[in-house]
C-alpha cells in the first residue's frame, strides 16, 4: 500500500477520426500508437466511457496480451486509466501475457464486466509491425456492433481522459497489489495471475486428460509437433501438452513468446507455417499443429504434412463430437459456421439432425447464439474453431479435440479425414487473399460487382470453362438477422451460388493496418470421392471468379498474397 494517496488527473485531449474498432478491435501500426499524441489514451478512455459508470464503479476487469512489441507500455497506461475511471480490480496475466481464449475464460470465471486484449492476432509484430486493442464484454466474447459503434462515437468527440500517472504495477510478481487513490474510499487492486492455470483447469473439465496422456506418452504414443510460432501459446503448450500430458519437450517448437514473433508472421497457414509443414513431410510425426500470435487460431496437419482445411476440421469435429467428454454431458445444441466457410458442416448437421446457423464472419455472432443456448460448436474458414466453453475461438481446444478423436478412433489424421469424405462427400475449398490493395480500387471493384450480381439478368447466366458449365442459381449481398435479438447485419459479402452447390464469395477485410484485403472464397462439392488436388479441381471456378470480378485488371494485382 502506498503511503499517500495517488493523484488522479483529468487531461485535455482532441479526437482522432480513425478509431473505429472492428470485431477484431482497433489495429494500427505500432508507430501510430507511439507517435500520435494520446492516441492510445483516447481509445482506452472511449472504452471505459462506453461502460455505464454504475457498472464500472468498483468492478473487475481482465487485461492480457500476446506479448508483442508495445504490450507492456500499453498495459501501464491501461492500469493507470482503469484506476482513474473507477474500476476496482484488474486481473492481469503474468508479465502482461495471456492468450485470447484464456482472457475469455478468466472474464467468465471471475464474473468481470469485460476485458482488454492487446493483440493484432496473426498480424506481424515488432517496432515496425502491428498493434491492436480489443474489448471483450462480460460474456467473455468480442464486443457487439452496438458496443463498438458506441466506442467509436465517443472517440470522435472525446475532449478529456482520466489517468493516475503515478501508479506503477509490477507485472513480474504473482499476487495482489493495492493502491490508495485520492477521493477513493476503497483501494484499487491489481492481481497478477498465472496466465495458464485457470484456462488449463477449464480444459481438464472438458477433455479426458488420462486418455490423452496415454495417447501422447503411453506404451505406443503418437508423435506430435506443435509450433507456437513465438506467440502467446508457448507457455500453454509447454505446461499442458508437455508437462501435464507427457509430450516430449522437443515436440514443442518456437514456444518462447517474442515481441516480434521471431521476425515471422504468426499466422498458422501453409505459407507462414511452412517450417512446420516441411518438418512433417518425412513422416517422423503423426500429428502437427500451429497456432497464431494470440492463440485463438490453429492449423491441423497429419503425417507427411497432410493438410486439414479449417472447414473440414470443423466438420470432422462435429461428426466426432462425442469423443469429447464435455459434450457427452451437455449434449449438442447446434452448430454454426461463418458464411464464407465451406458447407461441409451443413452435411454433418443434416445427417445428425442438429440445427445449423450461418453467420457473418466474426466470432461475436457465435457468442450471441451460444449465450442463448442455441449453439455448442462453431468455426470459421480462417483457422478458427471453438466450443461453448468460452466465447472466443480456441486454438489449443481444437488441438485437444483432434487428439481426443484420434484417441477414440485409433486412426490417423489422414484416415479420419478420408473416412469423412467417404461418408459425406468432399468440399473443395480455397481462399485467395489479395493483401494491401489500394482501398479506392478495391471499393470500386466491389461496388461494380454488387451492381452486376444483383441485376435480375445475372441469375440463370451460364459460365463455361473447359468441359464444365456453371449456372447461377442465386446471387446476393449476404445479410444476417440474429435469431436471438433480431439485429440485422448487412453487406457481409457478395455471394454467387451455382446450381451444383458451388459458391464464389467476395469480401473486403479491414483487419490489416495497411490498405485493403480482397478475399475470394471458392467452395465446390463432389459426392464421389476424388483424391485430386484442390487447385486442380477448382481451377474452372477460380477462372470464373476472376473473370466476373476483373480483379487483376481493377487492382493491378497479378496474383494473391496468400492461398489457403
From TrEMBL:
One of its GO terms (cellular component) is cytosol. It is found in: Cytoplasm. Keywords: Cytoplasm, Magnesium, Metal-binding, Phosphoprotein. One of its GO terms (molecular function) is magnesium ion binding. The keyword Nuclease does not apply. One of its GO terms (biological process) is carbohydrate metabolic process. SUPFAM superfamilies: Phosphoglucomutase, C-terminal domain, Phosphoglucomutase, first 3 domains. The keyword Cytoplasm applies. Residues 22-159, 198-303, 313-424 form the Alpha-D-phosphohexomutase alpha/beta/alpha domain. It holds the Pfam family PGM1_C_vert_fung. Belongs to the phosphohexose mutase family. This is Phosphoglucomutase 1.
Amino acid at each position: 500500500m502506498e503511503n499517500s494517496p495517488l493523484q488522479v488527473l483529468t487531461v485535455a485531449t482532441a479526437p482522432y477520426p480513425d478509431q473505429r474498432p472492428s470485431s477484431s478491435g482497433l489495429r494500427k501500426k505500432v508507430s501510430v500508437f507511439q507517435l500520435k499524441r494520446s492516441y492510445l489514451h483516447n481509445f482506452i478512455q472511449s472504452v471505459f466511457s462506453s461502460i455505464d459508470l454504475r457498472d464500472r464503479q468498483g468492478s473487475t476487469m481482465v487485461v492480457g496480451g500476446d506479448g508483442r512489441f508495445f504490450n507492456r507500455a500499453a498495459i501501464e497506461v491501461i492500469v493507470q486509466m482503469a484506476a482513474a475511471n473507477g474500476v476496482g480490480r484488474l486481473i492481469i496475466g503474468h508479465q502482461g501475457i495471456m492468450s485470447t481464449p484464456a482472457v475469455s475464460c478468466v472474464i467468465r470465471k471471475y464474473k468481470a464486466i469485460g476485458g482488454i486484449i492487446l493483440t493484432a492476432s496473426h498480424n506481424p509484430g515488432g517496432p515496425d509491425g502491428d498493434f491492436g486493442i480489443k474489448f471483450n464484454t462480460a460474456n467473455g466474447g468480442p464486443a457487439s456492433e452496438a458496443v463498438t459503434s458506441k466506442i467509436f462515437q465517443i472517440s470522435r468527440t472525446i475532449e478529456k481522459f482520466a489517468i493516475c500517472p503515478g501508479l506503477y504495477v509490477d507485472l513480474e510478481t504473482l499476487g495482489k497489489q493495492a493502491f490508495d487513490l485520492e477521493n477513493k474510499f476503497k483501494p484499487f487492486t491489481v492481481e497478477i495471475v498465472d496466465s495458464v492455470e485457470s484456462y488449463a483447469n477449464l480444459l481438464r473439465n472438458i477433455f479426458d486428460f488420462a486418455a490423452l496422456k496415454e495417447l501422447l506418452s503411453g506404451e505406443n504414443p503418437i508423435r506430435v509437433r506443435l509450433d507456437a510460432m513465438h506467440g502467446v501459446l508457448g507457455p500453454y503448450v509447454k505446461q499442458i501438452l508437455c508437462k501435464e500430458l507427457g509430450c516430449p519437450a522437443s515436440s514443442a517448437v518456437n514456444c518462447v513468446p517474442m515481441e516480434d514473433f521471431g521476425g515471422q508472421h504468426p499466422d498458422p497457414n501453409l505459407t507462414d507455417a511452412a517450417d512446420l509443414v516441411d518438418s512433417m513431410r518425412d513422416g517422423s510425426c503423426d500429428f502437427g499443429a500451429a497456432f497464431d500470435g494470440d492463440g485463438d487460431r490453429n492449423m491441423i496437419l497429419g503425417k507427411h504434412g497432410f493438410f486439414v482445411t479449417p472447414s473440414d476440421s470443423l466438420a470432422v469435429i462435429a461428426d466426432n463430437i462425442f469423443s469429447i467428454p464435455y459434450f457427452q454431458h451437455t449434449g449438442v445444441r447446434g452448430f454454426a459456421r461463418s458464411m464464407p466457410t465451406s458447407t461441409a458442416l451443413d452435411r454433418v448437421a443434416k445427417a445428425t439432425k442438429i440445427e445449423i446457423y450461418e453467420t457473418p464472419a466474426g466470432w461475436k455472432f457465435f457468442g450471441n447464439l451460444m449465450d442463448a443456448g442455441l449453439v455448442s460448436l462453431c468455426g470459421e474458414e480462417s483457422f478458427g474453431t471453438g466450443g461453448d466453453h468460452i466465447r472466443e475461438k480456441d486454438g489449443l481446444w481444437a488441438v485437444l479435440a483432434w487428439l481426443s478423436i484420434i484417441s477414440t478412433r485409433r486412426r490417423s489424421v489422414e484416415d479420419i479425414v478420408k473416412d469423412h469424405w467417404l461418408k459425406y462427400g468432399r468440399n473443395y475449398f480455397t481462399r485467395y487473399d489479395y493483401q494491401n490493395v489500394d482501398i479506392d480500387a478495391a471499393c470500386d471493384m466491389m461496388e461494380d460487382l454488387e451492381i452486376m450480381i444483383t441485376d435480375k439478368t445475372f441469375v440463370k447466366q451460364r459460365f463455361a470453362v473447359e468441359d464444365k458449365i456453371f449456372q447461377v442459381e442465386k446471387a446476393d449481398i449476404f445479410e444476417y438477422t440474429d435469431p436471438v435479438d433480431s439485429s440485422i447485419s448487412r453487406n457481409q459479402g457478395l455471394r454467387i451460388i451455382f446450381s451444383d452447390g458451388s459458391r464464389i464469395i467476395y469480401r473486403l477485410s479491414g483487419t490489416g493496418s495497411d490498405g485493403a484485403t480482397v478475399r475470394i472464397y471458392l467452395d465446390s462439392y463432389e459426392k464421389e470421392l476424388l483424391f485430386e488436388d484442390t487447385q486442380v479441381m477448382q481451377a474452372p471456378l477460380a477462372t470464373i471468379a476472376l473473370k466476373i470480378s476483373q480483379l487483376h485488371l481493377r487492382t493491378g494485382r497479378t496474383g494473391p498474397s496468400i492461398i489457403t
